[in-house]
Amino acid sequence: MAWTRQEMANRAAQELQDGYYVNLGIGIPTLVANYIPDGVDVTLQSENGMLGMGPFPYEDEADPDLINAGKQTITELNRTSYFSSADSFSMIRGGHIDLSILGAMQVSQEGDLANWMIPGKMVKGMGGAMDLVAGVKKVVVIMDHNARDGSAKFLKKCTLPLTGVKVVDMIISDVGVFVIEENGPILIELAPEITINDVKERTEADFLVDKGLL
């Protein structure tokens, strides 16, 4: 049984460590804010100029002036600070963000990332993705393992315009978890009732399988 988006976000939250500064991308990654483990204190950063984001608000708590980079309403904490977008990107480009959790359209077996546009389709803009993958210490991708038409998204080589080259450290999809190392990707976890053969059938990229799964 494949993981739901909430379960993928919950798994990604296990990568958070106490004291981390973390940037959450648009889409599934924003859900990670709701699954921060007990006892782990992290500071969430948003490209639009907010440091210290809380979880999503309940309907009666929403403040339309408090939004993340994806225009979703969020909550603040007693330590939240606000600043310009220029200062926000100085944090990112200066290497002060420990972890970025992003969505993806495609990832290659070498860790190349394509997540900003499909040629011929309307695009709002690059956003902060190129800066994030270049300036952040660790990049985790959360994505559905296959596109809506069933085609693979974890590929030998990306066919869409790249956001970054050899930048992805981990992939969390609805079928399992891969780490991308110098020798290539390694499948280290499987979603419930998903087999290694299931993953192979749905993946174009070449990958090894952790001994613990064999």
Model description:
The protein is 14% helix and 26% strand. By secondary structure, it is α/β, with parallel strands linked by helices. The protein has helices at 5-13, 85-93, 129-135, 196-201, and strands at 21-24, 43-46, 50-53, 76-82, 99-102, 106-108, 113-114, 138-143, 154-155, 170-173, 176-181, 184-190, 208-209. It has a single domain, classed as Glutaconate Coenzyme A-transferase, CATH 3.40.1080.10. The chain has 4 helices and 13 strands. The strands form 2 sheets. The chain has a 10-stranded mixed sheet with strand order 4-3-2-1-5-8-10-11-12-13, sandwiched between helices. A 3-stranded mixed sheet has the order 7-6-9, with no helix packed on it.
Write the layout of secondary structure elements.
Blueprint: H1 5-13, E1 21-24, E2 43-46, E3 50-53, E4 76-82, H2 85-93, E5 99-102, E6 106-108, E7 113-114, H3 129-135, E8 138-143, E9 154-155, E10 170-173, E11 176-181, E12 184-190, H4 196-201, E13 208-209
Parallel strand pairs: 1-2, 1-5, 5-8, 6-9, 8-10, 12-13
Antiparallel strand pairs: 2-3, 3-4, 6-7, 10-11, 11-12
